[in-house]
UniProtKB/TrEMBL annotation:
<feature type="binding site">
    <location>
        <position position="114"/>
    </location>
    <ligand>
        <name>substrate</name>
    </ligand>
</feature>
<feature type="site" description="Important for catalysis">
    <location>
        <position position="166"/>
    </location>
</feature>
<dbReference type="InterPro" id="IPR050724">
    <property type="entry name" value="Glu_Leu_Phe_Val_DH"/>
</dbReference>
<feature type="binding site">
    <location>
        <position position="210"/>
    </location>
    <ligand>
        <name>NAD(+)</name>
    </ligand>
</feature>
<comment type="subunit">
    <text>Homohexamer.</text>
</comment>
<feature type="binding site">
    <location>
        <position position="241"/>
    </location>
    <ligand>
        <name>NAD(+)</name>
    </ligand>
</feature>
<dbReference type="GO" id="GO:0000166">
    <property type="term" value="F:nucleotide binding"/>
</dbReference>
<keyword id="KW-0547">Nucleotide-binding</keyword>
<dbReference type="Pfam" id="PF02812">
    <property type="entry name" value="ELFV_dehydrog_N"/>
</dbReference>
<feature type="binding site">
    <location>
        <position position="377"/>
    </location>
    <ligand>
        <name>substrate</name>
    </ligand>
</feature>
<dbReference type="GO" id="GO:0004354">
    <property type="term" value="F:glutamate dehydrogenase (NADP+) activity"/>
</dbReference>
<feature type="active site" description="Proton donor">
    <location>
        <position position="126"/>
    </location>
</feature>
<dbReference type="InterPro" id="IPR014362">
    <property type="entry name" value="Glu_DH"/>
</dbReference>
<dbReference type="InterPro" id="IPR006097">
    <property type="entry name" value="Glu/Leu/Phe/Val/Trp_DH_dimer"/>
</dbReference>
<keyword id="KW-0560">Oxidoreductase</keyword>
<comment type="similarity">
    <text>Belongs to the Glu/Leu/Phe/Val dehydrogenases family.</text>
</comment>
<feature type="binding site">
    <location>
        <position position="111"/>
    </location>
    <ligand>
        <name>substrate</name>
    </ligand>
</feature>
Amino acid sequence: MRDRVEQIYDDVVGRNPAQPEFHQAVREVLDSLTVVLDRHPEYTARKTVERICEPERQLIFRVPWQDDRGEVHINRGFRVEFSSALGPYKGGLRFHPSVNLGVVKFLGFEQIFKNALTGMPIGGGKGGADFDPKGRSDAEVMRFCQSFMTELYRHLGEHTDVPAGDVGVGGREIGFLFGQYKRITNRFEAGVLTGKGLSYGGAQVRTEATGYGAAYFAAEMLRARGSSLDGRTVSVSGSGNVAVYAVEKVQQLGGRVLTVSDSGGYVVDERGIDLEVLKQVKEVERARISEYAERVPSARYVAGGCVWDVPCEVAIPSASQNELPEEAATTLVRNGCRVVVEGANMPTTPGALRVLREAGVGFGPGKAANAGGVATSALEMQQNASRDRWTFEHTEARVEEIMRAIHERCQATSEEYGRPGDLVLGANVAGFLRVAEAVHAHGLV
Ligand SMILES: NC(=O)C1=CN([C@@H]2O[C@H](COP(=O)(O)OP(=O)(O)OC[C@H]3O[C@@H](n4cnc5c(N)ncnc54)[C@H](O)[C@@H]3O)[C@@H](O)[C@H]2O)C=CC1
Ligand SMILES: O=C(O)CCC(=O)C(=O)O
C-alpha cells in the first residue's frame, strides 16, 4: 500500500500547489495510514482517503474595513469547510498576517481527525483572515469582525458550521462576531459560535480548556511511563490562550514551568512562572512577554532566542506551527527531555519528530493533546442546545475525562496496529477510522 499512499500524496501536492503546511499535515496522516489500507482494501476501492483529503467547500472572501484614522483596508477572509461526516463543520478562526489558504487547509485537515478523537458529533473546518490585530484599537477590531461576519454569516449555523477562536481570536473577537451574526440574522442562535462570554451562552472552562487539556495529556503520558508531572521541570512556548492555561494546569499538577515566549523572544524563570504576572501582562495589558521579565526579579528575557535551549523534562510547544525544528529537538534530547506534548497545531517539524522518536522521547501529537479546546466547544454547543449551564467543576471533570479517553484510544490503537506507544499513529488511525465509517454510511456525497 506504500505505493498507493505515495500516489495519493503526489495527487494532493499536484492539486494544491504552494501549500507547504497543508502538504506537511497530509503527509503525516498518510504515513500512518499505510497499515490501515493494508487491512481495509475497501478504503482504497472507495477512495476514502482521497475524499477526506479534498475539502467539501473552500470559501475566500473580501473583508473591507476602516481604521480609526479613516484609512480603508482590504483583507482576505477564509473558511474551509473540510468534512461534515461527523457533524457540523467545527474549528476556529485565526487572525494573523501569515494566514493563507494553505494554512487554513492544514488546520482544517488536522481538525477533522482531532474532532473525531474527541468522540463528539463534530465535523472539521477552519477559517480566518490575514488581518493583524496587533496594535489595533478595540474599535478597529470590532469593525473588522463586523465586516468579516457580514460575509461569513451566510455559511454558518448551529447545524451547519460553528467557528470558534484560534490565534488572534479570543473572547473579545467572538463577542463582536456573535453580535454581528445576531444583528444580521435577527436570531439569538447561541450554538453558532463557541468561546462566547459566560453572560451570553459561553461555557465554563472553554477559555482554559486547550491548555488544561494539554497538561492532562502530558500527565497521562507520564503516568503511562510510571511517572507524573509532580516535580517535573516544564518548558512552555507561546504566551497566548493555550500557553497561559497549560502553565496554570501544569503548576496545579505540581510541575515547575520555566519558560514562556512570544515571537520576539522568551522568558526563563527558574523559580517557576508567576501566573498572576503572566496573566496581567498578556491577558489584561496585551503587552510583549519581555514585560514579564521587567516585573519579576527572578526572570530573564532572551531576545530572539530559542526557548528549547532551556533544559527541561517536559516540553509543551504552544505557539505556532513548525516552531520546534530539528536542531531544537536535538537540544531537547541532549538536555534530557522525556516528553513533548503539542499544545499548538503542528508545532513540531517532521525532522524534529524523527529526532524525538529515535531518542525514545514520548510524543503527544496536537490533534490528540490539544483537543480539550474543541471538546469543550462541543460541550458548549450541548449546553446551548439544551439551554443549560454547567458548573466549572462539572465541566472540568468532563474535559479531564475526555483527555484521558483520547490518550487511551490513541494508545490502544497504536498497540492494535503494531506500534505500541506511537501516539502519532494511534491518533491518526483512530481519528481516520471514525471518520471513514461515517463517510461510507453517507454514500458517495
Ligand atoms: N485557542 C484554542 O482553543 C486552540 C489553539 N490551538 C493552537 O494553539 C496555538 C496557539 O493558539 P492560541 O494560544 O489560541 O493563540 P493566541 O493568539 O492566544 O496566542 C498565540 C501566542 O503565540 C505567540 N507566538 C506566535 N508566533 C510565535 C513564535 N514564532 N514564537 C513564539 N511565540 C509565538 C504569540 O505571541 C502569542 O502569545 C496555535 O497553534 C493554535 O492553532 C489548538 C487548539 C485549540
Ligand atoms: O473550539 C473550536 O471549535 C476550535 C478549536 C481549534 O481551532 C483547534 O482545535 O485548533
